[in-house]
Amino acid sequence: MAGSATSPAIALTIAGSDSSGGAGIQADLKTFTALGVYGASAITAITAQNTQGVQDVLVLPQSIIAAQMASVASDLRVGAIKTGMLADRATVETVVGGLGAFPNVPVVVDPVMIATSGDVLLQPDAIEAVRSRLIPLADVVTPNIKEAARLLDTVPATSLDEMEAQGRALLALGPKAVLVKGGHAEGEDATDILVFGAGSLRFSKPRIATRNTHGTGCTLAAAIAAGLAKEHTLSAAVRDAKDYVWGAIEAARNLEIGSGQGPVNHLYVI
Fold first, then answer.
1. Which residue among the candidates 167, 182, 215, 262 is catalytic per the annotation?
2. Counting CB atoms within 10 angstroms of each CB, which of 3, 120, 168, 216 has the fewest?
């Protein structure tokens, strides 16, 4: 006797491909799977990338980026969307246009600018498009302290109060919430600050001494999207995502993948 049909939560990632599997589309799909969410994807760029850096980037034609988004929208009941590497201004504009096919679907914007290795993943002329066109559509934006500063044309925050103030300034651009990530800050704890209209929340975890942190930003944003796809509140989605990423970093302490900054262990919960 056949079992009854089920409809899993679905999340869509719109991002670049990482050939080494630690970040980008690959990290997002691993995260969705680990958290029990069906993952769909629209690839914006293909990178030749490993744990040591990014060797080459091919931005896909805008027509195929738009077609991927339209194809998913026409057939799948997407519960949340996460955007990652968008590479250039044309891609940002294409994605903004494509999001119109997903009314009332929560959007998590990870404003990917620089890889963990330090390689540039967003062209300078695209930053204004992210700031003025994409961020206003977001339910939550997830910059690290360097990305927050770049979006605001200022210097990186050096304290939790400054992080919160910059989050508040980014909130003025139009998103529903901003999560300023403290992974690049100093101190024994890594604290992320969620800023929204009615106030703010802080999420802290002990900092882990490891070089295996490739893809942490992608993974956190994808985990938040997974929570939203399961209809969790934003604060619960952020809390659970923080816990998941911390566990993935802890579980990757002894992983030996590549000779540079290795990936986190996305599947440690399975």
1. 215
2. 3
What is the pTM for the complete model shown? 0.95
Six-digit token pair at 163?
A: 């992080």
Place of tokens 């029990």: 36
Q: Is 213 a catalytic residue?
A: yes
Does 83 score more than 70 pLDDT?
yes
- Is 82 an annotated catalytic residue? no
Rounded-to-10 torsion of CA 179, 183, 184, 190 = 110
Average pLDDT of 35-40? 98
**Which one-letter amino acid corresponds to residue 24?**
G
Q: Which of 218, 219, 230, 262 is catalytic?
A: 218
Q: Answer yes or no: are the C-beta atoms of 149 and 156 closer than 8 Å.
A: yes
Q: State the pLDDT at residue 184.
A: 66
Write out the two tokens for 154: 């200022």
Q: What is the pLDDT of residues 220-229, one digit of tens each?
A: 999 999 999 9
- Locate all alpha helices (DSSP H) within 172-233, ordered by sequence: 216-229
- 189-196 and 199-206 strand pairing: antiparallel
Identify the band that residue 116 occupies on the pLDDT scale cut at 50, 70 and 90. Answer: low
| Residue 181 known to be catalytic | yes
Establish whether 247 is a catalytic residue: no
217 a catalytic residue:
yes
Is 107 strand, coil or helix? strand
Q: How many Cα atoms are found within 13 Å in the side-chain-facing hemisphere of 222?
A: 35
Judge whether residue 181 has pLDDT over 80: yes
- Our answer to whether residue 233 is catalytic in this structure is no
Phi, psi of 106 (to 5 degrees): -60, 140
